[in-house]
Write a structure and sequence with these properties.
With 83 residues, the protein is an all-alpha fold. Helices cover 46% and strands 0% of the residues. The longest helix has 16 residues, at 25-40. It is flat.
């Protein structure tokens, strides 16, 4: 006998769970709390960053840039002439 209880069966549609695009409540709540904390303590955070060593400040700036600037997608070189 082949038990498939609780497993996805080929050809069956998904039932239950969150619908596509519905945000996770826990993640949304955590993001909101972190955002509020940063907003309320922004000056202290800046002071702490400025008081740190230069190498640590550079690491901090590079890390937060990941959340501000979009990452460039790698491109493949082409041999075609530009139009």
């Amino acid at each position: 006998m082949n038990e498939t209880k609780g497993q996805f069966q080929k050809g069956k549609t998904k039932t239950g769970g969150r619908t596509k695009g519905t945000p996770n409540k826990v993640n949304g709540l955590l993001k909101e709390k972190l955002s509020n904390y940063i907003e309320e303590n922004f000056e202290t955070i800046l002071e702490d960053v400025q008081a740190s060593r230069r190498s640590d400040r550079i690491k901090f700036y590079l890390k937060i840039m990941e959340y501000v600037l979009p990452k460039a997608k790698p491109t493949e070189p082409t041999t075609e002439a530009p139009l």
